[in-house]
Amino acid sequence: MTDISVTLASPEVLARARKIKLFLMDVDGTLTDGGVCLISSTSAGGSGTTAVSEMKVFNAQDGQGLSLAHTMGIQTGFITGRASPAVAKRAEELKVTFVYLGQAKKTEAFEECMQKAGVTEEEVAYMGDDLPDIPLARRAGLAVCVADGAPELQAVCHFTTRRLAGRGTAREVVELILKAQGRWEEAVPLALA
Fold first, then answer.
1. What is the predicted pLDDT for the residue at 46?
2. Which uninterrupted H or E stretch holds 24?
3. What is its EC number (predicted)?
C-alpha cells in the first residue's frame, strides 16, 4: 500500500492518529466483508441432527497490520455483536489484546478496554461499519468508517478508508497511525511472515 491514505488524510486526522495507543474495531463488515456464511451438515444418510457451522474470511494484510500494531506497542481489540469461535481464534493468532464477543451494546466493552489499557478516549482509534458503531465513533479520538460503511456512521467519523470491508481496512488504519506517528519505517523490517 502506498502513502495514499496518509496523503489524503487531513491535518486534523493526522494529528488525531499521532495520539493513538489503542485500536479497537468491529469485526463483521470491517475485518470481513459483512457476509455471514452459515454451513449446515446432516449426519450420514440424511437423518439425525443438523449441525450449523459459521465461516469467516479474514484478509491476510489486516493480519499483518494488526501484528505490526502489536509489535509497535499499539494495543488492539475486537468488539463485535456476534459470538464467534472463528473470531476468537483469529484474535488469538494475532495477539489481539481485547476480545469482546456477543456485545449487543458496545459501550461497556469500549470503556473496559480503555480502562484496562490505561488510555483516554483521545488515545483510542475505533473502526466500524454500521449503526451500532456510532456511539463508539462519537467517543473515539480517531473514528474510522470503512469505505462501504453506513452513511450515518461515515457522517460522524473523522476518516473513511479507501479500502472496502474485508479488503485490508485494518491494515490501512494501522499504516495511517504508524505513518502519522513517524514509526512506519521502523515497523516495516519487524514484519513477520
1. 63
2. strand 22-25
3. 3.1.3.45
- Give the position of cell 519505517: 185
Backbone φ, ψ for residue 179 (5° rounding)? -70, -40
Beta-carbon contacts of residue 184 (< 8 Å; ≥ 6 apart):
175, 178
Residue 2 scores a pLDDT above 80 = no
pTM to 2 decimal places: 0.92
- Give the residue from 34, 16, 22, 17 showing the smallest Cα distance to 146: 34
Query: Looking at the predicted structure, is the pLDDT value of residue 3 above 60?
Result: no
Q: What is the mean pLDDT of residues 175-187?
A: 96
Of 170, 122, 121, 129, which Cα lies nearest the Cα of 153?
129
Q: CA-to-CA distance for 152 and 158, rounded, in angstroms?
A: 13
